């Protein structure tokens, strides 16, 4: 496939003296293959893609003057993203199904002006402007992968299901200056569910982030210096009861 698209430009209302940011434009190419193998017991899908951005819009800290900053949006020049995505599902037995996939991603700023506020790990007020050419695009890990096992069987006149899921992410930077990053991490989740005949009611026990990893979900540098971060939920577990109507 080949496609193009754009995101409209605009103004920074909190910093009206700044120039408008231009429309973001994307040219995308992709090719893929979907397959069912071994009498449809194995499904394997893969895709390669190449995205060419111009004037990528990015939320940053604007330096308006000595010691004067504000959040805003600027254009990130030219950027390139390409990679490969693969996912599979295999029915090992009538009850056991394995599924998983991975993605390799290469994303970089190819060209940018010297108008990005470069922060510091200590969280001082950004005063230095520079280029982010060659840096990683925020929130774009180079490799992610997952594998899951589902086992279903009948018991007590109802249907039971056990699930175990493992996810790996090799980490990402949170802002264009690539100062703050989330290191590589793994997540583990599990669940067990039983449903009565006719799915009239069900009960499940589940747990998420069982290894209790601290994972930055969103981070930004505030205009007066400090870093603000929100995190993925910590280890969470519970019981869910469902009733069908």
Give a quick set of tags describing it:
245 residues; mainly beta; ten-stranded antiparallel beta sheet; two-stranded antiparallel sheet; 18 strands; 0% helix; 62% strand
Task: Please explain how this structure is put together.
The chain has 245 residues and is mostly beta strands. The protein has strands at residues 2-7, 24-37, 42-54, 57-65, 68-75, 78-91, 96-111, 116-118, 128-130, 143-155, 158-169, 172-173, 181-182, 185-195, 201-208, 216-221, 227-231, 236-243. Strands 1-2-3-6-7-10-11-14-15-18 form a ten-stranded antiparallel sheet, with no helix packed on it. The chain has a two-stranded antiparallel ribbon with strand order 4-5. A two-stranded antiparallel ribbon has the order 8-9. The model has no long low-confidence stretch (mean pLDDT 92).
Please sum up the structure shown.
The protein is mainly β. Helices cover 0% and strands 62% of the residues. It contains no helices and 18 strands.
